[in-house]
Amino acid sequence: WHIQDPASQRLTWNKAPVNVLVIRKIRDESLVEPFKELCRFLVEEKQMMVYVERRVADDATLSKDEAFGSIRNQLCTFREGYDDISDCIDLIICLGGDGTLLYASSLFQGSVPPVMAFHLGSLGFLTPFKFESYRTEVAKVLEGNAAITLRSRLKVKVVKDIPSNLTQVLNEVVVDRGPSSYLSNVDLYLDGRLITSVQGDGVIVSTPTGSTAYAAAAGASMIHPNVPAIMVTPICPHSLSFRPIVVPAGVELMITLSPEARNNVWVSFDGRRRQEIQHGDCIKITTSCYPVPSICCHDLVYDWFESLAQCLHWNVRKRQARLADVSDSSDTES
């Protein structure tokens, strides 16, 4: 038995990538030109097949651009929820903020292709690449010269009277009290055993990737995405001793309404598909076997700490001044 060196996680292609999915942040006019520039580069210079959402291809700005018309006609389009592209994509490129990576993850409920994310949004914790050097960076990735971080996801199933599908979650599952003025009251089970009841505004079950999102705002620790773990964080618990906990990846968590609960709760998955949970329903959560291979700009350690510093200003404080000389130090101590 040995601990795997994270540096050994490298991107390798069994065959040259051909089909690339480009995800662009919607309703952001500043991304139109980078999007056109990237598509032109991929189609004309790299001879790749580019897939985009139909609503992106039908954007009025693109339709009016006659110079881009020849490239636009070569784009393959799809509609979320209607067209399954999960088996034909070799690489995903995201243009925008962290939301584009979360959206890309939601499109692939099974195996996920490698994801290369360019920082063109507001936060950019999960998007390490700068678009100014996209030609060099994309070329390196297509050659297979890149480190990757395997970002674990959660496999979630909501059990109700009617059958429900499994959902893959990259950041977190949030259970909250919704519009009710009462505290939420839910029971938390681990591998079938009741471990505690959560009385408060709700509870967050997050991946290490999600530990720097809502969970961090609720007081949780930040976990490197390579650590195999699941974090459970209460939201405003009515208790002075309820601290966030970390449990091993692979355990099954189950959340149900407590028998004494005065109101229903609501659940959402990476901020989407919000639904109501009633008495008799349960939410089952465990680690998915389909992680998101996120391509690193430098390496998986440097990128994470760079994001902590640049996006969250982690441990920023004014530097303490050094003492003038040794005699000053001894005078102070005496």
UniProtKB/TrEMBL annotation:
Annotated coiled-coil segments of the chain: none
The residues that cross the membrane are none
Please give the SUPFAM superfamilies that the UniProt record associates with this protein.
Answer: NAD kinase/diacylglycerol kinase-like
Q: What class of enzyme is it?
A: transferase
Entries under InterPro entries matching the protein: ATP-NAD_kinase_N, ATP-NAD_kinase_PpnK-typ_C, NAD/diacylglycerol_kinase_sf, NADK
Write the record's keywords in alphabetical order, separated by commas. Kinase, NAD, NADP, Transferase
Question: In the UniProt record, does the keyword NADP occur?
Answer: yes
Q: What is its EC number?
A: 2.7.1.23
GO biological process entries? NAD+ metabolic process; NADP+ biosynthetic process
Which GO terms of the molecular function aspect are on file? NAD+ kinase activity
KW Kinase (keyword) present: yes
Alphabetized HAMAP family for the sequence: NAD_kinase
By sequence similarity, the record places it as follows: Belongs to the NAD kinase family.
Q: What is this protein called?
A: NAD(+) kinase
Q: Specify the species.
A: Poecilia latipinna
